[in-house]
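Protocol step 6 of 9: fold each sequence in the batch and record its structure tokens directly after the sequence line. For illustration, a two-sequence batch is reproduced in full.

Sequence one:
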Amino acid sequence: MESTLGLEITEVVEQAAIASARLMGKGDKNEADRVAVEAMRERMNKIHMRGRIVIGEGERDDAPMLYIGEEVGICTSPDAKAFCNPDELIEIDIAVDPCEGTNLCAYGQPGSMAVLAISEKGGLFAAPDFYMNKLAAPPAAKGKVDINYSATKNLQILAECLDRSIDELVVVVMKRDRHTDLIKEIREAGARVRLISDGDVSAAISCAFAGTTTHALMGIGAAPEGVISAAAMRCLGGHFQGQLVYDPAIVKTGLIGESKEANIERLNSMGITDHDKVYDAHELASGETVLFAGCGITSGTLMEGVRFFKGGARTQSLIISNQSNTTRFVDTIHMYGDQKYLQLK
């Protein structure tokens, strides 16, 4: 799957990132999201595949979205039988966030990116656009820290695994009212807290890379980003756990459905009956082949953002695969029209 789809999936996130980046700093997060969605959909519909969106952003706040259950790819068109051989058909599940960190893009802040994860059919966790309690940590702490432990205990374990003192650890937490007690506990335990307004996919993945000064991600964020992060962390060998949050009283945003009871009904309708189950990366991204792709919209810890020049644009993408056990940083120059000048810096 990687050799067949890898380049085209890279182009999907590149086109979404370029579309959003044109609206960077203009203060319109919904429009930045909308153009990324349309660019991602348009490029995916040119790929020789039958794809299905299993989890994506937009349901909670009526934002533009590739909706759950939407089919994408050339082989989903009405006349697909004319050019899609069933014996050669690639069927894949897709988790998407065309503009991860819409506020970051809208206000010109670091860390916004276009991201997705793919696997063979049935290989990614299918769930509604709810919230998810998350714990991400470096490979050295895989299976040793646990989302059911207190933050204090996890920090003690993490310090031992990394051979550091707790006061050398940096934990990323989203700046939300629901995290007031968590932030207080982390600080009292002696660790440092890096608060972010959006964009926890980058924070989760950064835990798996030495030198990013990110040692853990803790707290509640959106579920689609959780599945995408889990796919990347599975490929990287990092620790990731996620637990769906379906009670509006916990997330304190008003963006999670009308009631806890209605949300439970939605989970049941999707075959999720163990509502409080803690999932690890292999359960959230269970496929034999898993591929993560992200492209920077604004520059962040892992990638440069889109840089425009006369006649073109330059992007940097991150492609992670468990099939080839590789992590690739892809630097691409996109030329428009007859422009032949390559701006390398």
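Sequence two, same batch, same settings:
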Amino acid sequence: MSVSPSAMITGASTGIGYATSKFLVEKGWNVFAGVRKTEDGERLKSELGEAVTPVICDVTDGAQVKAAGDLVREMLGEENLAGLVNNAGVAVAGPLLHLPIEDMQRQLEINVTGQLRVTQAFAPLLGAEVGRGGKPGRIVNISSVAGLSATPLVTPYACSKHALEAFTQGLRRELIMYGIDVVAINPGPIATPIWDKAEEMDPEQYAGTDYEAAIRKILGYMLDRGRSGLPPIKVAEAIYAGLTDEKPKLNTILSPEPFQQWLMSVLPSRMVDRLIAKRLGLTPDARR
């Protein structure tokens, strides 16, 4: 391998992962691009060049994650991995009183347990193993503003990101002994395909419940805010800072509506509850 720094990025085929892969390559890094499909890996290599090494890595598949770690280990030799970007994730929506249990299990399996699998596989290559060369690497977890405040009807996603915040904080403290820093990026709406998948959710699934109208509203909001959100390059820039700044921020909040984000963080929680409930039609007079 080159003496250029190397990073492993999960969920690299589109959106934030793709933008970050491209940005790091332009900065002279080598990128191990985690993808689930061979054709996505071939496309990335074709578009981004020889500095990209596609790695098949479905974060829900333990054997595949281990194989990905073994492949990267072989290619690095004794050199340390400079960065791990835990980016793979999905967004599940639905009212908690009616949400299929398997939907919540899938949400947590990908967004939380999947990050643990990847971290365990790659942390040794970042410096948590005796005998590797170079300074310790860093871990950047892609969280969300939803990890700081939960929006009703997208609570499964918020649960996963709240968990990822605890994961980030606890992991950072556990890895101090190895000199490996761990930080989180907290994007608001970003124009990525994750929100397009909201179209796949059928509001009719909740027809006849008190949440039917609110579900339609929140899905429309998700699609609108996602498509008009910040470009993924803004997150890529923040990830690069997390990987390279001498003292990176522990949480970097990125929002197209910073004032609204700030306002919601300073208003009394009960007031925020009422404002959100009124906006989505979740007040008592909205019940069937």
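Proceed to step 7 once all outputs are recorded. Observation for sequence two: The CA atoms of residues 86 and 115 lie 6 Å apart.
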